[in-house]
Amino acid sequence: MKLEGEVALVTGAGKGGRGIGQAIALALAREGAKIAVASFSVESGVALAEQVRQAGGEAVSYQVDVSDAVQVDRMVADILSRYGRLDVLVNNAGITRDTLLLRMTEEQWDAVLDINLKGAFLCTRAAARQMLRQKKGRVINITSILGVTGNAGQANYSASKAGMIGFTKAVAREMASRNITVNAVAPGYIETAMTAGLGKQIEKEVLQRVPLGRLGQPEDVAGLVLFLCLPEASYITGQVIHVDGGMAM
Ligand code: NDP
Prior knowledge:
It is a single chain. The chain is an alpha/beta fold. The protein is 47% helix and 15% strand. The radius of gyration is 17 Å and the shape is globular. The protein binds NADPH dihydro-nicotinamide-adenine-dinucleotide phosphate (NDP).
């Protein structure tokens, strides 16, 4: 078990069995990491923590809004009082509020930027205090290929994900001398609750643009996140790595 003794916080780890955060939490737990899961609703985090425990792992769940600094700081303080350390942070919580630019309300813009981008900032700031003390840490930001390519109808989402990429590179430079790596993982189209509502027609169109000829699964993303947490990845920082079947080359 390559993460034995380590503690990982995964945000946005919920959503009834199909989320990317859930697959990441389970992959890290299988390598022996103790897992803290943060989700917006109580039930989804509790269910996932229970799933980790049933598989023989150790997990705790938090109902937290990642865009609220007080809640985030309280959660990280609780993780530290419980486990005494924090080695891995995966900023995975994210939402969409898709619509064309001229129809986009300020609320739709703010909600997406607050949760996707500010949430990553708040969680990283809280975790980094401890990682700096430990002189060891891995931060992995789940961005999107849309943060690189953009997408019509998703100006708010694309901006938030592009912001995460700039954030990743700046923090990677800031933290590098203290043995903390910061990387971004950019998924393409992954079959989860987030994409389930887009419909079969969109799915078909997307599929035509995926050279590997299939849609992605949460486990495809989790495999890369796990690798970035391992000693083998200790010389990788400030990178944006796509997991998209070749969609955005
Ligand atoms: P889901 O909608 O399945 O899961 C999103 C998770 O974020 C849920 O667990 C949800 O909690 C949580 N969440 C939402 N708002 C908050 C909040 N304010 N505070 C804390 N947690 C919150 O999405 P995916 O698994 O598909 O996506 C995970 C990440 O991957 C997102 O950042 C997304 O942008 C990114 N991504 C996804 C792609 C895809 O094709 N699916 C492609 C590229 C990137 P709850 O369970 O309680 O609702």
